Structures are given as C-alpha cells and as structure tokens.
C-alpha cells in the first residue's frame, strides 16, 4: 500500500553519551568552558582534516541541554544552513547557544565569511529570542572567542 501521508514529523531524540561527564556540561559560562565542551563532543580525528561546525544549546542556568554537529565542509570552507542550526535550538527548548568551527590550517584569525556568518546567526537568534553566547574557532592547540575579542 502506498504511503499517503502529506507531512513528516520531526522529532528530537535524547541519547546519553556515557563517555561525557555531567559536570562538564554544568554552568558553561565562559569561553574556556565552552572550548572544553566543544572539544569533548568534536570528532578530534578530523580537527586538522576538514572544517566542521557544531552548536551547543543552553538553558537559563547555562547548563547544556543539547548539542549537534550542524555541518561538515571541505579543507578551508563550510556551508551552514542557519535554519538547521536554529531549529535544533528550538527543539531543545534552548534560550542560549554557542557555535564553533575549526580551522584545519591552524590560523585563529576569523575570515570575513566567519564574521558575516556570525552576524547572520545573531540576527536569527534575535528573531527567535535565542542569544548567541559565543562563536569559537578551534585549532589543534588553541581557540579564538568572538565574545572575548569583542566581535559579539
């Protein structure tokens, strides 16, 4: 029999990752703690290989309520669908969120595209009443915080 449904339901599923400590996800209120969370969820084997983009979502106490890999890219660029990012936050009932991507080249300097993307994410968050706390750029050895550097 042919499926006659006219729409698909999108569901969030919650899975506990036993390798992750609950304490690492409580009161994540500065860039150093955000970097630590991103590094715990990141596929570290690809950090120097290709760009990826992740998001972590927070409640009002800045406890992590969810995280998601949003996209994988190429060697030096990545395409982000902001609708996917924001819908993930809405499904988690997040009030705040942070995003991160890596630079396989090892440079910590944000590109013009990185800055433009951050502005678009802030605008989308404002519309949905979700605050972007930070945009982190990761390299193997260090990180760059848009918040700490005054870019947010």
Label this structure with key terms.
five-stranded mixed β-sheet, 3 helices, MPN, Cytidine Deaminase, domain 2, protease, JAB domain-containing protein, alpha+beta, hydrolase, 152 residues
Structure notes:
This protein has one domain: Cytidine Deaminase, domain 2, CATH 3.40.140. It has 152 residues and is of the alpha+beta class. A 5-stranded mixed beta sheet has the order 2-1-3-4-5, with helices on both faces. The protein has 3 helices and 5 strands. Strand 3 (96-102), helix 3 and strand 4 (131-138) form a beta-alpha-beta unit. The model has no long low-confidence stretch (mean pLDDT 89).
CATH superfamily, please? Cytidine Deaminase, domain 2
**Architecture per CATH nomenclature, i.e. the level-2 architecture:** 3-Layer(aba) Sandwich
Quaternary structure classification: single chain
What's the structural domain tally? 1
**Helix count?**
3
Helix content percent band = 25-40%
Main pleated-sheet profile: 5 strands, mixed
How many runs of DSSP E, i.e. beta strands? 5
Strand order of the largest sheet: 2-1-3-4-5
Radius of gyration: 16 Å
Strand content: 15-25%
Gap between N and C termini: 54 Å
What is the succession of H and E elements?
HEEHEHEE
User: Can you tell me the overall shape?
Assistant: globular
CATH topology: Cytidine Deaminase, domain 2
Class based on secondary structure composition and strand pairing = alpha+beta
The pLDDT mean sits at: 89
Unreliable segments (pLDDT under 50, ≥5 consecutive)?
A: none
CATH class: Alpha Beta
């Amino acid at each position: 029999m042919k499926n006659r449904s006219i729409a698909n339901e999108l569901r969030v599923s919650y899975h506990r990752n036993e390798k992750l400590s609950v304490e690492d996800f409580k009161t994540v209120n500065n860039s150093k703690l955000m970097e630590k969370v991103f590094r715990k969820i990141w596929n570290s084997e690809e950090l120097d290989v290709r760009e990826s983009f992740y998001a972590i979502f927070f409640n009002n106490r800045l406890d992590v309520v969810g995280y998601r890999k949003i996209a994988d890219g190429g060697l030096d660029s990545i395409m982000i669908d902001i609708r996917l990012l924001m819908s993930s936050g809405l499904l988690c009932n997040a009030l705040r969120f942070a995003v991160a991507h890596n630079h396989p080249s090892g440079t910590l300097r944000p590109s013009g595209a990185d800055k433009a993307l951050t502005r678009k994410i802030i605008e989308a968050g404002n519309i949905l009443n979700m605050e972007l706390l930070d945009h982190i750029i990761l390299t193997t050895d260090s990180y760059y915080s848009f918040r700490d550097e005054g870019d947010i």
